[in-house]
């Protein structure tokens, strides 16, 4: 039997979902309106791309500070402040009169959104305890997985009948409702327990992480590492991250406590989330192009075609949570990643004229598999640490997932761009082969997590040796 979760904890989880959903929704919602925004503001499409890129880079910039800020002001307060800043920035984006202001406000929106998901995960982890994390985290997992999936559909529907500011105004009612409920139900957390801010570490990762994300994004556009706009930030970003990791490993009060990786379960679970980020977010770049380029679908049809992916995730996520609490995240993540591989590999064989029923069935099953592959690994990482270590754990897991997503998206985009001159059908087949290879990596790492959890449980059952 697994412990019953009281209603007040479920209530907190449902409130936190507002923040997770809206922050992930905006990763794809606004992208469909870049043409309209550029035309209305008199800017080029290349310049308008910074509306999307600025948001994604800002997401990465804010992540390292989440743990320290959570300890300083309390994770519940951080969640409320971040949600408030995101909502205000959304309203201001709708009022922006030129591209420069819009990009700047999108950066503010991205910084606040980057804090929402890890702060929400910390709130839930501290409220529920390690033995019940799976079921509660599954609710947040639905929001994080389905937000990017339904973004293109919702964006297309809004642009079909309204103007582009509504891409931002739609966040206002969600934000007002979430903040109102949060003020009433979200625990504020303990404040003032943060050590002195590690300024050197902050500078290193604040330069390294966004430059790395920017470089791999440019790599996906340029399809070459030889371009100086790719190579220079890539080298600087990697050097910054490497210096940050080396420094944080030795330092007691580092900005992010990387010594958590000494725990085999946490280390394995975090690596699984990095691979899952590549297969989840990287494939989310391919699937819209698959429908638009290969099957000739418009934006709205593409979004509706991807709805089955999010639906499969939403249906199975609660089951994944229950299985995680009963059997452990390792074995659930292992089977989830196996199923992800099984439902991804067929796309390496499908052609442009494959019937829609087959495609939709595979997407629905892949959505179900993703629910079992991603959330259980994150829950296993958080269950492996102490309550006071959760801010660092959620920060680290989200950074690794962000890096994995950026690398996966860039790699798959480069493979696709390089193969397109030889034909769209073979190009997409080749790209999905690479997604399948990344899925194999996820399976291997999930097996590592399962074995690490088995070893940890065996060590707990073994009586301590007599002196």
Automatic annotation (TrEMBL):
InterPro entries: EmrB-like, MFS, MFS_dom, MFS_trans_sf. Belongs to the major facilitator superfamily. EmrB family. The keyword Cytoplasm does not apply. Pfam families: MFS_1. PANTHER family: MAJOR FACILITATOR SUPERFAMILY MULTIDRUG TRANSPORTER MFSC. GO terms for cellular component: plasma membrane. This is DHA2 family efflux MFS transporter permease subunit. Keywords: Cell membrane, Membrane, Transmembrane, Transmembrane helix, Transport. PROSITE patterns: MFS. It comes from the Bacteria. The chain crosses the membrane at residues 12-34, 46-66, 78-97, 103-124, 136-158, 164-185, 197-217, 223-244, 265-287, 299-319, 331-351, 363-385, 397-419, 431-451. Residues 12-454 form the Major facilitator superfamily (MFS) profile domain. It is found in: Cell membrane. It is a multi-pass membrane protein. It comes from Amycolatopsis rhizosphaerae. One of its GO terms (molecular function) is transmembrane transporter activity.
């Amino acid at each position: 039997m697994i412990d019953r979760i009281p209603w007040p904890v479920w209530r907190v989880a449902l409130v936190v979902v507002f923040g997770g959903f809206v922050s992930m929704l905006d990763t794809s919602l606004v992208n469909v309106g870049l043409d309209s925004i550029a035309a209305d503001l008199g800017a080029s499409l290349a310049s308008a791309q910074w509306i999307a890129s600025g948001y994604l880079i800002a997401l990465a910039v804010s992540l390292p500070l989440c743990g320290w800020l959570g300890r300083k002001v309390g994770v519940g307060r951080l969640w409320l402040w971040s949600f408030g800043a995101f909502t205000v920035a959304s309203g201001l984006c709708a009022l922006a009169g030129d591209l420069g202001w819009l990009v700047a406000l999108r950066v503010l929106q991205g910084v606040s959104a980057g804090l929402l998901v890890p702060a929400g995960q910390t709130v839930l982890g501290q409220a529920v305890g390690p033995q019940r994390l799976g079921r509660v985290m599954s609710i947040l997992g639905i929001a994080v997985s389905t937000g990017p999936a339904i973004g293109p559909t919702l964006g297309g529907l809004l642009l079909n009948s309204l103007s582009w500011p509504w891409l931002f105004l739609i966040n206002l009612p969600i934000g007002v409702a979430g903040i109102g409920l949060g003020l009433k139900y979200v625990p504020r957390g303990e404040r003032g327990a943060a050590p002195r801010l590690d300024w050197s570490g902050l500078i290193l990762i604040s330069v390294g992480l966004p430059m790395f994300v920017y470089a791999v994004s440019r790599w996906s556009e340029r399809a070459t590492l030889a371009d100086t706009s790719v190579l220079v930030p890539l080298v600087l970003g990697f050097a910054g991250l490497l210096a940050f990791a080396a420094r944080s490993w030795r330092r007691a009060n580092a900005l992010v406590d990387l010594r958590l990786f000494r725990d085999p379960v946490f280390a394995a679970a975090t690596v699984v989330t990095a691979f899952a980020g590549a297969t989840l977010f990287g494939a989310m770049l391919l699937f819209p192009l698959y429908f638009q380029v290969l099957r000739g679908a418009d934006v709205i049809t593409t979004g509706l075609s991807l709805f089955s992916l999010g639906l499969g995730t939403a249906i199975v996520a609660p089951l994944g949570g229950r299985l995680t609490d009963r059997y452990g995240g390792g074995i659930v993540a292992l089977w989830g990643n196996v199923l992800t591989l099984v439902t991804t590999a067929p796309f390496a064989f499908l052609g442009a004229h494959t019937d829609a029923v087959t495609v939709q069935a595979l997407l629905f099953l892949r959505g179900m598999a993703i629910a079992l592959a991603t959330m259980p690994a994150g829950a296993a990482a958080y269950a492996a640490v102490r309550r006071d270590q959760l801010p660092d754990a959620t920060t680290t897991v989200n950074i690794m997932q962000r890096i994995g997503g950026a690398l996966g998206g860039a790699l798959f985009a480069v493979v696709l761009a390089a193969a397109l001159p030889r034909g769209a059908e073979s190009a997409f087949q080749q790209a999905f082969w690479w997604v399948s290879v990344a899925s194999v990596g996820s399976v291997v790492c999930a097996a590592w997590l399962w074995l690490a959890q088995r070893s940890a449980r065996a060590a707990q059952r073994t009586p301590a040796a007599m002196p």
